[in-house]
């Protein structure tokens, strides 16, 4: 009785590291973009990025 | 639940744009489809025509042979309606990323079963045997899903929320905007009282039992505001764990299904008028789809069960005002407030919430806009008609066909509820969340009953008269 496409979900994603729901306006302290996301950042670099559920990163998973 | 937990549309940092939402969110598709049908119906009506040819609905019958006769006489219309729904929902399915081929096959089966249920509800003995279509649809779906099982490909067509939102947009045509404006404040006050008290009971009980505050908040909004949607919205706002949402969803769905049967039966035993029962269901049901099943069931008793006063529409109208206007539209406010509380007062989770006032609009259930616009459009068309003319001309030519389409959409939803519910998922909830949520259910039901049958009884009794 709910839906993955409902407006009330806004653009929430899942933080793969903490297994927590994350709103689109929030970010994870441990977020690290990978080469696939930025095309430039190395795997070891860290950035205060948004935990987008669609992005390939060490923090979130699709 | 798996779909909700794992599926989320890829979005740019900070969220999607408005224009991508109107294509990617089902609320907007409910508006496009529902409001689109209303606009077409209004245009036809303005030109002296009507949508009623394709908005076909079964008629009352007493002998099975009459069902056959109706089907033979109207097979082209029933087939055309299937094509219409398939095209409309199929386009939406494609936009939402659902496999269209699977959706169309699954939806065709749903349509055929819904047709059978629609006919069943119009059997002149249906009320006598309590064979109300929503109850039968739910029972049939639960039986199939928990015994034979539902094949994976059929899941594509089981879109409870999408069908119910489309139905609610169409429902707006049955409620004049003046009525919404008149009744809305009462619904908001009554719903606010029940929601705040219910949330408080669930949250405090959960915390007292040693549960995580975020779980307590997710359970609380699930029980007090708008069921599964409320739980999911607040989960994102406060950074709840995935298992918190799973637990909340299981409890909400379990109790929602119980209430689909319990509330109409209790209301019938107490001889409540349809408006009063609808209001009670609106405060004490946990999901729009479940509540509409209960309200439509009770509405079906009007005129068929001695001692139940009021109209069938009054039950659904009262429910919608209470649940949609009184509770659903406030989910963004709850999410914002709880997010601020979580950030300021609860232990850090590693996720930094940066929630602002924009959260209220981001999480606003947009389909409500379609409901209000549909109401406004029909109100505008009806002005200039006398009440007698409205009843004789506007209702049969404009409103009744849209009501028929609404009933179809709701029937699709009721069938989908049962077919997507698995009893085994209820058993992994755990005792403490169950006790906390159930404490809230008990308070919710009693308080909702008291407010509907005593404090605001006169108001809800007069609704629709």
Short recap of the structure:
The complex is a heterodimer of chains A (62) and B (465). Chain A is mostly beta strands and 62 residues long.
Describe the structure.
The complex is a heterodimer of chains A (62) and B (465). With 62 residues, chain A is mainly beta. Chain A has one domain. Chain A has 1 helix and 3 strands. In chain A, strands 1-2 form a two-stranded antiparallel sheet. In chain A, a hairpin with a 4-residue loop joins strand 1 and strand 2. Chain A is elongated. The model of chain A is unreliable at 37-62 (pLDDT under 50). Chain B has helices spanning 2-6, 18-24, 26-46, 64-95, 100-121, 133-146, 160-171, 177-208, 213-238, 242-270, 274-284, 288-301, 312-325, 331-345, 358-362, 367-382, 387-419, 431-455, 457-462, and one strand at residues 351-352. Chain B has one domain. Chain B is 73% helix and 0% strand. The model of chain B is unreliable at 1-14 (pLDDT under 50). With 465 residues, chain B is an all-alpha fold. In chain B, helix 7 (160-171) runs parallel beside helix 16, helix 8 (177-208) crosses helix 13 (312-325) and helix 9 (213-238) crosses helix 18. The chains are: A mainly beta (62), B mainly alpha (465). At the A-B interface, strand 1, strand 2 and strand 3 of A face helix 1, helix 3, helix 7, helix 9 and helix 10 of B.
